[in-house]
Design a protein that fits this description.
Strand content: 25-35%
CATH architecture of the largest domain: 2-Layer Sandwich
Radius of gyration: 23 Å
Order of helices and strands: EEEEEHEEEHEEHEHEH
CATH class of the largest domain: Alpha Beta
Number of domains: 2
Shape: elongated
CATH topology of the largest domain: Alpha-Beta Plaits
Number of helices: 5
């Protein structure tokens, strides 16, 4: 597989053996309280303050419960509560995603998050309902396939423009191929400040430098030719 990559100089090819992109899970937490007037919070059960406490505590999960040598990201992407400035709402919703390169840690995260949410909500007289959905597994590059891809890349791009990259914490559905067969997933650099193609992925100003795309196509064609001919990395 080949992915354009705005974090790499245009015309370079990035690769990595082993875990190359993280798994991705999404979660949605509903916090149920009791609505009331903003001037009389003692007659309500405030889910917004509870949500704030849950959010701040979740940020300690990675730093306090996970081995610091592991790679994990727990991000909050959405927070919703209330419709008016003088009303304490009935509910609050918090949602986000979890990324890691370790399947064992991935399997633990749902239980950890549920324990935190249930405990804090109970202490603050609310209830918690967590929906946790696994999306993509870790993308893992097979050593032999990746070495073959690198060998072809050196021919197409030149030795000095083929570079090893760190793990990317983004995620890919290409990972499902890697669970079934030996796979290789590499990155085609498109970042050129002069052309305005250096903005990150999912940024509204993201743009692609078209110039290296033919080399990307040549890489895939060359890899396919050598693989089907039974060649290995040299």
């Amino acid at each position: 597989g080949l992915h354009v990559w705005a974090l790499l100089e245009s015309g370079k090819l990035g690769y990595r053996i082993g875990p190359v992109m993280a798994s991705a899970d999404i979660w949605d937490l509903k916090i149920q309280g009791k609505g009331g007037h903003g001037a009389m919070p003692h007659h309500a059960v405030d889910p917004t303050v509870t949500a704030a406490t849950v959010i701040s505590t979740l940020q300690t999960v990675v730093s306090r419960e996970i081995d610091p040598q592991e790679t994990v990201v727990l991000s909050i992407g959405k927070l919703e509560a209330g419709t008016a400035v003088n009303i304490i709402p009935d509910t609050a919703r918090v949602a986000g995603n979890v990324r890691t390169t370790n399947p064992e840690i991935r399997a633990r995260m749902q239980g950890i998050m549920k324990r935190v949410a249930d405990g804090i909500c109970a202490a603050m007289r609310c209830t918690a309902e967590l929906v946790y959905t696994p999306i993509y597994p870790v993308t893992v590059n097979d050593p032999a396939m990746t070495q073959l891809m690198r060998s072809v890349a050196v021919e197409v791009f030149g030795e000095e423009r083929v570079v090893e990259l760190p793990v990317a914490m983004g995620s890919e559905d290409f990972s499902y191929y890697g669970e079934k067969i030996p796979a290789a997933y590499v990155f085609l650099g498109i970042a050129d400040e002069a052309k305005g193609t250096g903005n990150q992925h999912h940024n509204p100003k993201f743009n692609v430098d078209d110039e290296p795309l033919p080399k990307g196509a040549a890489l895939l064609a060359g890899f396919a030719a050598r693989f089907t001919a039974g060649e290995s990395a040299s």
